[in-house]
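Thread title: Can someone regenerate the structure for this chain?

I was given the following input by a collaborator and told the matching structure tokens would be attached. They weren't. Posting the sequence so someone can regenerate them.
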Amino acid sequence: MFHPARGAPITLFAHYINGTKQNGVYLGGYDNSTSWGLQRENGTVYSGWVDYFTARLLGPKSADPSTGKPLFPNEFTAFVQIVAA
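Best answer:
Regenerated them for you:
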């Protein structure tokens, strides 16, 4: 169940591209979305000066509220697949 203060729970999903099921299991959430927006961040003292990525689950109402565009500036779309070694 979606909780606005905590966000949507993350669950496992099958992933489809143009109606074709992709191999593997993917992380996703509300409205069966498996699309993530990633944005590279410069390292800070808190990350030990190591650059890192922030991630947000894309789906309904995930557009940038100031521009209405589906992605924030310098953000790109990715999918998170679970792989066992």
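Residues 11-82 form one domain.
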